[in-house]
Amino acid sequence: MSMMRAVLATGPPARALRMGERPIPLPLRPGELLVRVKAVALNPTDWRNIPLAQEGCGIGCDFAGVVEERGPQLRGTAPAQGDRVAGFVHGNLYKHQGAFAEYVRTPADLVWSVPPNVPFTAAASIGGIGGSTAAQVVFMKLGLPMPKPGVHTGSESTSGPKPGFVVWSGASSVGQYASQLARLAGHNVLVTASPENFDYLKSLGVSAVFDYRDPDAPAQIRATAEREGGPGVVCGLDAVSAEGSTLKAIETFGPRGGHLITLLPVNVTGARQDVKVESTVVYTVLGDAFRLWNKQFDANVADREAISRWYRVCGELVGKGDLRPNRLRVLPGGLPGIEAGLELLKSGTLSAEKVVLEI
């Protein structure tokens, strides 16, 4: 049995990480790919779920790399051996899975083709949890139109006043991607952030940025959106997903109300009834059943089909610069450097940056 290096969970009682080895995930099942990992991106979920992982579980979700082998029953449209791809897996849950390794096994319909002008580090930051969550929020939960291959969307295809889309925490990884996707879908995007990130977020195409610390920010967002002549804010994302941030995001909505997505379940009892608040979990797009937050999630075929459609257009948008990656903080050290990267994430000192490592 061939082995590979990987970052593994120690399990109880330490509930930490260790460098180790586990079998290369072969043989492949029908429809699967074996990807040689070239870069990984780090997410808060990677360190938050370490205490839940059993001994020997693979860690990490986001990866980009090169197709090493193809499983049986793959059609010609699937990535070929040697193709550059990116995606994510459900890390911290299985002993045979986890992106923080030399190889990862993935269904062929759950990766996207990385253009040659896009570095693996950038691809890992896009095609992992951050970009996939944004696609789930914008296209699946809120129902905005998904771009089609070869078809440009956004402001150039939308005439008249645009509906408003709010992102609370626009500088977060998911916030940056959701802002860009909402703009591509023809919405007027208004976000909150720290002042030092205002110019950067405007470079991504958002219409206006507001200081999240300003107590008047919700009223300012609402007034700005309604001055555009449209219906004001009608949908959006709270990328912080705490009670206080969600209540503030709700205050930005126009007179017709709308639909707000959170990344964690939030109690908003007593808030406006004309704003629907709904949480989302990105792992449903992988199409497998799982358990999280003491709740059982059934296999979701519709979400998997939707993310597969998104992946078919994602690479084109990235290659043309219509969807830009997060600003990257590239750390040294390869797989052994991941633990330091997770500690950096936990420190809370990063702002508008995504931690990535080359493997």
UniProtKB/TrEMBL annotation:
Residues 14-357 form the Enoyl reductase (ER) domain. It comes from the Eukaryota. The lineage of its organism: Eukaryota, Fungi, Dikarya, Basidiomycota, Agaricomycotina. SUPFAM superfamilies: GroES-like, NAD(P)-binding Rossmann-fold domains. SMART domains: PKS_ER (SM00829). This is GroES-like protein. It comes from Calocera viscosa (strain TUFC12733). Pfam families: ADH_N. CDD domains: enoyl_reductase_like. InterPro entries: ADH-like_N (IPR013154), ER (IPR020843), GroES-like_sf (IPR011032), NAD(P)-bd_dom_sf (IPR036291), Trans-enoyl_RdTase-like (IPR047122). GO terms for molecular function: oxidoreductase activity, acting on NAD(P)H.
